[in-house]
Amino acid sequence: MDFVIAIEKVRQDWLGRVRTIEDDVSPSMLRRIAAMLDLDPDAYPRGTPLPPHWVSLFAQESARQGDIGVDGHPEPGVTLPPIPLPRRMGAGRRVTLPGALRVGDALTKRAEVAAIEPKQARTGTICVLTMRHTYLVGGAVIAVDEFDAIYREAVPPGTPSPVNPGTPAPEGAAWSRTAQVSNALVFRYSAVTWNAHRIHYDADYARQAEGYPALVQNGGLTMQLLLDAAVENTPGHRLTGYTARLTRPIYVGAKITLAGGALEGGRMRAWVADQDGKLCAEMELDFA
């Protein structure tokens, strides 16, 4: 009952609250992004159009160092609602991409607390926070990204974190590629997105405090790699939106398979499988 009362207080105080973040889509930032994605860092001078889904790499929150908690996230209530559960992980998103982003644009992000929903799950009490990120250039909306994060109870020290046992990944892919989730790639993605969550770089913390067997790949990176692969395999089409769901952790150092079906009626299904063939992420993508 105390948890329900606490969540209702958070909802009253935070639901609908908006933060605005300004950013420049600068050539120097594009050099870092391109290099991180193993692309030519000199290929993005001012005015270059960017893949629409790259917009999520910009206008990140920048909490002060004194506001960072023991897990590496900003303390509750600094940039996100103070939900009274200690562990937070990305779960999925719904994105529309009506506009274009170019190198040199002045970008505005409106970050709105869209929903706070407590639930009872197989792993115990959870709360789902939905943030609605609206991106604008010159006052025009170029993207809307609704992002879900799941808050969970802490596991007792020395106890393994509950993990989805997984289901087999789909078969019959029209295209696929393998990727290596290296420490350096995860570090560089975390640097680009200003993400200091310790499960991505502090193995002792990941094992001892959060019960994972190894460092955990950043879910945003999983989605970035899958989106890039899907776009590369649909030449002549423009990505206009997608939904994504993360279903199973990927551990740093693992080899993964990025795959997708054929483009049919402007829609494609894509997914990520781990080295055991288990489904880790899936997407529905829309193209024009």
Structural account:
The protein has 288 residues and is of the alpha+beta class. The protein has 2 domains: 154 residues, Thiol Ester Dehydrase, Chain A, CATH 3.10.129.10; 130 residues, Thiol Ester Dehydrase, Chain A (Roll). Helix content is 19%, strand content 33%. The protein is built from 5 helices and 10 strands. Strands 1-3-4-5-2-7-10-9-8-6 form a 10-stranded antiparallel sheet. A hairpin with a 6-residue loop joins strand 8 and strand 9. Helix 2 runs antiparallel to helix 3. The protein is globular, with a radius of gyration of 19 Å. The mean pLDDT is 94. It comes from Sediminicoccus rosea. Pfam families: FAS1_DH_region. This is MaoC family dehydratase N-terminal domain-containing protein.
Overall pLDDT, averaged? 94
Portion in helices: 10-25%
The CATH topology label of the largest domain is Thiol Ester Dehydrase, Chain A
Structure annotation, total helices: 5
The counted number of beta strands is: 10
**Which CATH-level-2 architecture of the largest domain?**
Roll
- Low-confidence segments, given as residue ranges, are none
Over the alpha carbons, how many angstroms does the gyration radius reach? 19 Å
Largest sheet: 10 strands, antiparallel
Element-by-element helix/strand order: HEHEEEEEHHHEEEE
Name of the CATH homologous superfamily of the largest domain: Hotdog Thioesterase
